[in-house]
Structure to design on (260 residues):
């Protein structure tokens, strides 16, 4: 059963759906969405169990893809280009493979259609270990997270999911579902697409300092997406759109506008 996704829109023109990664939300894409919105009608969505979108026990990519399908159909977009980062990139790939008629062009940011050995469960555990009942200020949560998550930029990213209402703090992401389904999130349902592929224009954008898109992944990328090209942003890591937004936007717009 699909979930009604929340998010925001920017700009006018042909439709471009933007999907964030694990622990993220649509608002992570504010800066990039405004830039893309100069030429396209951007729909930046909160994925299920993230942002302001509803919660679900299901974190399968088929389920996430169905949410996006429902958004495209319910809002009368017809056909849209789809841009997804990390977890959102996997959901975008599955949408394109299951419903190619809905996707005009596909852009996948720093992820491949493969299962990964590494896991983000340590971040989920760190967030769940915080005793929010004793917290009166955001800084206290940052302090509690510091021992398990020593990297300040990562803590800052995770803390974007902390909300306060009437002085009571809570996490707006469904940590229980993310913990229970982490193997699905880090995996990819390759067996579902043994004979399937998406033949339309596809762009994979990788960060040079990231190991999420490796040379060993290229064969699988081209098997499922035979019209894919792969570009690398020099000096960028996994959060390439945040680290180098100007370069990222230039690459995306060049692809969408059909530049060689």
């Amino acid at each position: 059963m699909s979930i009604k996704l929340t998010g925001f829109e920017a700009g006018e023109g042909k439709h471009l759906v933007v999907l964030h990664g694990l622990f993220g939300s649509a608002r992570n894409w504010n800066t990039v969405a405004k830039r893309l919105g100069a030429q396209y009608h951007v729909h930046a969505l909160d994925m299920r169990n993230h942002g302001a979108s509803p919660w679900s026990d299901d974190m399968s990519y088929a389920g996430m893809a169905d949410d996006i399908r429902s958004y495209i159909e319910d809002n009368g977009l017809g056909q849209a280009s789809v841009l997804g980062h990390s977890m959102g990139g996997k959901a975008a790939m599955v949408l394109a493979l299951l419903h190619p008629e809905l996707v005009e062009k596909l852009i996948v940011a720093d992820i491949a259609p493969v299962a990964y050995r590494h896991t983000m469960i340590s971040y989920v555990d760190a967030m769940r270990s915080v005793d929010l009942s004793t917290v009166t200020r955001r800084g206290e949560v940052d302090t509690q997270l510091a021992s398990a998550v020593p990297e300040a930029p990562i803590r800052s990213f995770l803390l974007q999911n902390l909300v306060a209402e009437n002085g009571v703090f809570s996490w707006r992401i469904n940590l229980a579902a993310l913990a229970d389904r982490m193997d699905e999130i880090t995996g990819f349902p390759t067996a579902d697409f043994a004979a399937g592929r998406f033949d339309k224009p596809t762009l994979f954008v990788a960060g040079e300092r990231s190991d999420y898109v490796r040379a060993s992944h290229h064969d699988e990328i081209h098997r499922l997406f035979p019209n894919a090209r792969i570009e690398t942003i020099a000096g960028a890591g996994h959060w390439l759109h945040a680290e180098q937004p100007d370069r990222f936007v230039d690459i995306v717009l060049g692809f969408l506008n059909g530049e060689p």
Notes: Residues 7-116+187-256 form a domain with the Rossmann fold fold (CATH 3.40.50.1820). The mean pLDDT is 96. The first strand starts at residue 7 and ends at 10.
